[in-house]
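Deviations from the work plan: none for this task. Representative record:
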Amino acid sequence: MLIFLRRVLRRAPLLALILFIWLVLTVLSLVGRGRAYKNYSTEHGRLPGLSIVMRGIHDHVYPWSGDKAASSSADADEDIEADEGGGSGAGLKGDSGSGAVGEQDGNSGTEAGKIEGIEADTDSKQGQKQDGKTENPEKSAEVSMEIPASSCSKVVSAKDYGVADESYLSPDDTVYNTDKEGLFAPNGTYYSLQEVDDSYFADALMIGDSRTVGLYEYGDMANVTSFMARESASIYDLFDDDEKLDYTPKGKETTRRTLKDLLSKAKFKKIYISVGVNELGVPDTKDYYEEFRKVVTKINKLQPDALIYIQGIMHVSKNMSSTDRVYNNRAIVQRNKAIATLANGRNIFYIDMNADLCDENGDLKEEFTGDGIHLKAASCERWHRFLRKNAIVIPGSAETASSEQ
Amino acid sequence: MVNFSGLEFIFRFLPVFLIIYWIIPSRYRDALLFVGSLVFYAFGAKLFVILLFLLVLVNYVLGEMVWVMPGRRRKVQQRQMLVTIVTVDVIVLIVFKILALKVKASLLPLGLSFYIFKMISYQADLYLGRMRRRPSFMQAAAYFTMFPQIAQGPIMRFSQGWIEKPTNVRRQTVYIERSVSLAKVEDGICFFAMGLGMKILIADRLGILWNEIIKIGFESISTPLAWLGAVGYSLELYFDFWGYSLMAAGIGLMLGFRFVQNFIHPYAACGIADFYRRWHATLGSWFRDYVYIPLGGSRCGTFAVIRNLMIVWLLTGFWHGGTLNFVIWGLVLGLLIVWEKFVVKGLIRRVPLIGHLHVIVLIPLTWVIFAISDLKELGIYFTRLFPFFGTGTAVNPGDFAKYMGIYWPFLTAGILLCVPVFYNLVIWKRRNPIVIVLLAVVFWCSVYFSSISAGNPFMYFSF
């Protein structure tokens, strides 16, 4: 045996070196299995153990990192959860009634234009509490109300081609936002979407992934508004301390900053969030919703006066949607329905441009996309136009005046 | 799993197969290769493995009939037999190609065009008496199906794999047993690591650049980016295919076969015709031996030579794909080769630079035709390459700088590897400790990238 090994070492050193490293990596993967690597799977042994080590290196998780690294994403949420609801809607309280289109009464004739998936939840059987608060569902039913159709876009539906991998999704009957008070609950103060001009975006911030990068590069908006975007940004890492995004203030040079830092120092009146396509490969919709909720809460805490626009995930093309188990419109629509429930019609709005871009099946029209996922450069202007046509103007506020000039 | 750069293949299938292959007596190795290859094929092509098995059976049996054909009219009957087999093979190929084109792309069995070409070459070599000894079923079956070559070639000849050697015993020829040695295994790993690096560290990275261009939309790219895209795509294709061929050849070496050379520094070629003697050389020589020469080759009148060349290149175009752009691609190459052969031959001989310029400038343009199957989009791309015919829409003039800033390391590495001396140096010095460490680093870096981009749902973060 030893002689054979010596021969291998002498005559096939590359083979020996590769085998040796393989052995070391396999041992490392065994050391960290169940602890540092508990979030990684070998897909039932289909992949070698060393692939876990490699993926760990990519995520800065090592066998000796222990359990902490595996759950690092969970501890970034700090104290914000506890605050949720407390400071919600600050700055808007005084407005209630002044220019609001809705009424305190929940039955304001919104049945026809009811936003899909936003039916205020009164179903006591499914009354899953997101934030640990326990309320008597019967009691909360009394204060439930519906947001008028004019304050948010409808979630655009799409054809299901039956290719979606269910493990990334949540059951279709999952109930999301059930808040009866606080930031995410409608309180009767509502505003309507309307058309504005480009000056409206001067104090806005566009947060997003590569799709938003496209809007910056090709949407004719670089001199109109500020961008905070990066390829592969996702709701999970927007507030990570070591994830910097490209911040490009209106008409200026790009610098790299973390979102937390930016929102703590600069002031914005409107914040647009457009993410969601990268997250399609992370189970599941419920989890995505929870994470989105946390992010919106944090943004509201840092920028209490800002209007927050939750942009529905743009659909993908038929080609993609009918073949890809991850990137398909069934998953996108489900996630849009979930995040749309976060809108309160008061300072959080859901807007969905899919109606302007998709065909009758809800598939992104091929003429607008090259790769099935992103808008072509020449089509980015359509997004810009959609944003102009779907904006909230708070009566009496400074930006109304500027947008009416 | 049928992807050589996939982790399942490198760390599961290949080591298990090789260990069994090395342990068992050499007389069972053909059988093992056949069975192992069927397993491999079934992973990638599912039920099409039945089609493969039937084709192997039919080709072997009909080949046997050619071999044992008795009687005076032997040659005529053999010829009829050959025509029959080749017709069957070609019809199978055409039917599936049409099905894939008209019905669903997934109806094209994995590697069909490669193993059909091997079958045709086998039959022709039998008929032409190039095999002096009757191949056994296991030999033929292992040759047709061998997993290192089944998905993407190279199109090895039977005689390259099962080498004949006359012996003195009763004046018979025998096939030399493939010998496996540590030195050959080491060489095999060396080529495999190099091929893997080319595929993952260069081709796959540059593939993202091409995707970016598709994402932007051709009408909105600047002219410099259009050229960068053409160069990037050319390099992607080259290293994807060369890398694959090196991996296949490396596995072949580990199994005891000889090295099959498929790419011989094509970008160092002097002229388009020379380029295609060096690019996918096993396909080029297949067309030369089984189409061009039987048609009369170059030993006929000018008109006939031109006709033969155009037929060969039209078929090459069809072989690569059924859409019109591939036909145009083949025709353009045919015309360029005719142009070189009959018009500027003397000039290229006197000024080789012209031949090199043909390769460096024209070949990337032909790859653009190869890449874009929608003719309207193809037209738009060319108007961006040559912006005399129209202007783009929503063009960002800073796009070239942006993408050059991201992709220059891969482009530089690719261009350097197009110069033969760098590759040759690595091959020549492959026993040098520095080169060994370098290759190990290349291997593990490739595995790293393969790991973080495959089989990990959390790695969908790419947009």
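Residues 13-32 of chain A form the longest helix (20 residues).
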